[in-house]
Design goal:
This is DUF1489 domain-containing protein. By secondary structure, the chain is of the alpha+beta class. It has a single domain, classed as Archaeosine Trna-guanine Transglycosylase, Chain: A, domain 4 (Roll), CATH 2.30.130. It is built from two helices and seven strands; from the N terminus they run βαββββββα. Strands 1, 2, 3, 4, 5, 6 and 7 form a seven-stranded mixed β-sheet that branches. A hairpin with a 3-residue loop joins β3 and β4. The longest helix is centred in the first third of the chain and has 9 residues. It is globular and about 50 Å long. The protein starts with a strand and ends with a helix. About 25% of the residues are buried.
Protein backbone atom coordinates (compact mmCIF):
# COMPACT_ATOMS: atom_id res chain seq x y z
CA UNK A 1 0.00 0.00 0.00
CA UNK A 2 1.42 3.39 -0.94
CA UNK A 3 1.99 6.08 1.64
CA UNK A 4 0.31 9.48 1.26
CA UNK A 5 0.83 12.93 2.74
CA UNK A 6 -1.52 15.72 3.77
CA UNK A 7 -1.00 19.42 3.19
CA UNK A 8 -3.08 22.52 3.79
CA UNK A 9 -4.29 24.20 0.62
CA UNK A 10 -3.27 27.68 1.76
CA UNK A 11 -3.93 30.58 -0.61
CA UNK A 12 -6.80 28.58 -2.06
CA UNK A 13 -10.18 30.21 -1.60
CA UNK A 14 -12.10 27.07 -2.54
CA UNK A 15 -11.79 23.64 -4.12
CA UNK A 16 -12.56 25.31 -7.45
CA UNK A 17 -9.55 27.63 -7.24
CA UNK A 18 -7.34 24.71 -6.18
CA UNK A 19 -8.54 22.71 -9.20
CA UNK A 20 -7.95 25.68 -11.52
CA UNK A 21 -4.38 26.08 -10.22
CA UNK A 22 -3.57 22.39 -10.63
CA UNK A 23 -5.03 22.20 -14.12
CA UNK A 24 -3.08 25.30 -15.19
CA UNK A 25 0.15 23.33 -14.60
CA UNK A 26 0.12 20.77 -17.48
CA UNK A 27 3.67 19.53 -16.70
CA UNK A 28 2.74 18.89 -13.08
CA UNK A 29 2.15 21.17 -10.12
CA UNK A 30 5.11 21.86 -7.84
CA UNK A 31 4.95 21.84 -4.07
CA UNK A 32 8.27 22.91 -2.54
CA UNK A 33 9.56 21.61 0.78
CA UNK A 34 12.87 21.99 2.62
CA UNK A 35 13.46 18.32 3.22
CA UNK A 36 12.88 15.15 1.27
CA UNK A 37 10.39 13.02 3.21
CA UNK A 38 12.28 10.16 4.85
CA UNK A 39 9.64 7.73 3.63
CA UNK A 40 9.53 9.06 0.04
CA UNK A 41 10.24 5.59 -1.43
CA UNK A 42 6.96 4.38 0.09
CA UNK A 43 5.09 7.18 -1.66
CA UNK A 44 5.36 5.72 -5.16
CA UNK A 45 1.73 5.52 -6.25
CA UNK A 46 0.66 7.72 -3.33
CA UNK A 47 -1.13 11.06 -3.26
CA UNK A 48 -1.04 14.44 -1.60
CA UNK A 49 -4.35 14.91 0.24
CA UNK A 50 -5.47 18.53 0.37
CA UNK A 51 -6.86 20.07 3.56
CA UNK A 52 -9.20 23.00 3.01
CA UNK A 53 -11.12 24.67 5.83
CA UNK A 54 -10.19 21.90 8.35
CA UNK A 55 -11.34 19.14 5.99
CA UNK A 56 -9.49 16.65 3.83
CA UNK A 57 -11.50 17.09 0.66
CA UNK A 58 -9.40 16.11 -2.36
CA UNK A 59 -6.17 14.52 -3.49
CA UNK A 60 -3.58 14.85 -6.23
CA UNK A 61 -1.41 11.86 -7.22
CA UNK A 62 2.33 12.30 -6.60
CA UNK A 63 4.43 11.91 -9.74
CA UNK A 64 7.96 12.34 -8.36
CA UNK A 65 10.34 14.14 -6.01
CA UNK A 66 13.01 16.37 -7.55
CA UNK A 67 15.78 18.33 -5.82
CA UNK A 68 16.24 22.02 -6.71
CA UNK A 69 19.55 23.84 -7.10
CA UNK A 70 19.20 25.47 -3.68
CA UNK A 71 18.84 22.08 -1.93
CA UNK A 72 15.07 22.15 -1.46
CA UNK A 73 12.77 19.48 -2.86
CA UNK A 74 9.84 19.74 -5.26
CA UNK A 75 6.95 17.34 -4.96
CA UNK A 76 5.59 17.11 -8.50
CA UNK A 77 1.85 16.39 -8.60
CA UNK A 78 -0.38 15.27 -11.43
CA UNK A 79 -2.35 18.28 -12.68
CA UNK A 80 -5.71 16.91 -11.54
CA UNK A 81 -7.83 17.01 -8.43
CA UNK A 82 -9.71 13.92 -7.26
CA UNK A 83 -12.49 14.63 -4.77
CA UNK A 84 -12.67 12.39 -1.70
CA UNK A 85 -15.16 11.89 1.10
CA UNK A 86 -14.67 14.96 3.27
CA UNK A 87 -13.09 14.24 6.64
CA UNK A 88 -12.20 16.57 9.50
CA UNK A 89 -8.47 17.23 9.85
CA UNK A 90 -6.83 19.54 12.33
CA UNK A 91 -4.57 22.21 10.82
CA UNK A 92 -0.80 21.64 10.81
CA UNK A 93 2.31 23.16 9.28
CA UNK A 94 4.10 21.48 6.42
CA UNK A 95 3.01 17.97 5.50
CA UNK A 96 2.12 14.85 7.45
CA UNK A 97 2.11 11.18 6.49
CA UNK A 98 -1.24 9.50 5.85
CA UNK A 99 -1.39 5.71 5.70
CA UNK A 100 -3.47 4.27 2.85
CA UNK A 101 -5.88 2.49 5.20
CA UNK A 102 -6.64 5.80 6.96
CA UNK A 103 -7.10 7.83 3.77
CA UNK A 104 -10.63 8.89 2.80
CA UNK A 105 -12.21 7.10 -0.15
CA UNK A 106 -12.51 8.75 -3.55
CA UNK A 107 -15.90 10.05 -4.59
CA UNK A 108 -17.39 8.57 -7.75
CA UNK A 109 -16.60 10.64 -10.84
CA UNK A 110 -20.31 11.27 -11.43
CA UNK A 111 -21.09 12.12 -7.79
CA UNK A 112 -22.94 15.35 -7.33
CA UNK A 113 -20.93 17.57 -5.04
CA UNK A 114 -21.75 20.97 -3.75
CA UNK A 115 -19.84 23.00 -1.25
CA UNK A 116 -18.09 20.98 1.44
CA UNK A 117 -19.15 21.55 5.02
CA UNK A 118 -16.42 23.26 7.02
CA UNK A 119 -14.33 20.68 8.85
CA UNK A 120 -15.03 22.07 12.31
CA UNK A 121 -18.78 21.84 11.68
CA UNK A 122 -18.41 18.29 10.29
CA UNK A 123 -16.50 17.27 13.41
CA UNK A 124 -19.15 18.73 15.75
CA UNK A 125 -21.97 17.02 13.81
CA UNK A 126 -20.05 13.73 13.88
CA UNK A 127 -19.60 13.98 17.68
CA UNK A 128 -23.35 14.52 17.99
CA UNK A 129 -24.00 11.46 15.80
CA UNK A 130 -25.68 13.48 13.08
CA UNK A 131 -23.23 12.68 10.28
Amino acid sequence: MPLNITKIAYRSESIHTLRAWLESQPQGALMTTRYLPKRHEEMKGGSLYWIHDHSICARSPIMEFRQTQDGRWNIILEPRLILVEARYKRAHQGWRYLEEDKAPADLAADAQTGDVLPGKLQNKLRKLGLV
